[in-house]
UniProtKB/TrEMBL annotation:
Chain segments carrying region Disordered: 25-60
Gene name of the encoded protein: 106067161
Ranges of the WD repeats in the UniProt entry: 112-153, 207-234, 238-279
Domain of life: Eukaryota
Pfam family, one: WD40
Record flagged with keyword NAD: no
Organism: Biomphalaria glabrata (Bloodfluke planorb)
Transmembrane segments: none
Name of protein: Uncharacterized protein
Compositionally biased intervals (Acidic residues): 25-53
UniProt keyword list: Repeat, WD repeat
InterPro entries assigned to the protein according to its UniProt record, in alphabetical order: WD40/YVTN_repeat-like_dom_sf (IPR015943), WD40_repeat_dom_sf (IPR036322), WD40_rpt (IPR001680), WD_repeat_multifunction (IPR051179)
Length: 300
């Protein structure tokens, strides 16, 4: 203990023990000293700063031919083009409305109002004459495109998606309770496809117009017969996804369906047999929680 100096004792440093002297009143010298201690050269520091400044100052590239700003200060959640006239689009937003607008001029044809929550799903009928809008609380409205008037509405439970039939005025909807509903528009005649508890996360009507494919929160995929309201095939257990199914697509003939999931896999399913013909494992990153949120077949 006697070798440790008291606070009042003079303390001296042997010049031979000094590695480097940093001038604290010289900001440039301080930076140089820090860079040297970190093993980073002044040139590398300057290059990094120049790169960051250039990235911040560079204008963002925008290759669009038109920017539509109808949903002011609100995120756009969904959008669709009219299948008959692609000069007409519909967008749904967090501002509790959908807008039907002209894609050439950016002008609004009409506002789809009356929703009291985020519009999460929109879509045109096969002939482009009707447009449906649905919000998170379960309110669905069907509008006549020509006049902008409501011809049918339904106020149900929390919705996940809506999907039009490919050849008839028939609307399909999936709910958070796992049920799937189907209506004839505008009569409102309804069929219900039994819920299983887990949310019906996504769904689509197949090209044959007789079946629909639905992906669920627990990773199960079902193919439903629209006439009998019964499940033809169920993909689950070791063949199914381990996490929620987020997206679906079918090939041109409808013989195959592709599904994407939170488990970072995409599966290709034979719709005739209900068998998984391929499982595609997507690359994961350690930094983020990844999932497959979009899939698609080439229709060439």
């Amino acid at each position: 203990m006697s070798d440790i100096p008291d606070e009042d004792d003079d303390f001296t440093i042997d010049p031979n023990d000094v590695v480097q002297v940093i001038e604290l009143d010289d900001s440039e010298g301080e930076m140089d000293g820090e860079s040297d201690l970190l093993g980073v050269s002044d040139e590398e520091n300057e290059n990094e700063m120049d790169t960051e400044e250039a990235a911040a100052a560079a204008p963002q590239r925008d290759d669009s031919i038109l920017t539509f700003i109808g949903h002011t200060n609100s995120s756009v959640i969904c959008t669709r083009l009219n299948p008959v006239d692609n000069n007409i689009a519909v967008t749904g937003s967090q501002d509790d409305q959908a807008l039907v607008w002209n894609t050439r001029e950016g002008s609004i044809y009409f506002q789809c109002t009356g929703h009291t929550d985020t519009v999460v799903s929109v879509g045109f009928s096969h002939d482009g004459k009707l447009v449906a809008t649905a919000d998170m609380k379960g309110l669905i409205k069907v509008w006549k495109v020509e006049t902008g008037t409501v011809i049918w509405s339904f106020d149900g439970t929390d919705l996940e998606w809506i999907q039009w039939h490919k050849a008839a005025p028939v609307l399909l909807a999936g709910t958070k309770e796992g049920e799937v509903w189907m209506w004839k528009i505008p009569s409102g005649d309804c069929k219900t496809f039994a819920g299983r508890g887990p949310s019906a996360q996504c769904g689509l009507i197949m090209p044959d117009g007789k079946t629909a494919c639905v992906g669920y929160e627990d990773g199960v995929v079902k193919i439903w017969d629209l006439k009998s309201s019964s499940a033809i095939h169920t993909v689950s257990d070791h063949e199914g996804h381990k996490e929620p199914v987020f997206c679906l697509d079918h090939n041109s003939s409808g013989s195959l369906v592709m599904t994407g999931s939170e488990d970072m896999t995409a599966k290709v399913i034979n719709t005739s047999t209900g068998k998984v013909v391929s499982t595609l494992a997507c690359q994961k990153t350690e930094e983020d929680e990844d999932s497959v949120e979009a899939v698609g077949f080439s229709h060439l």
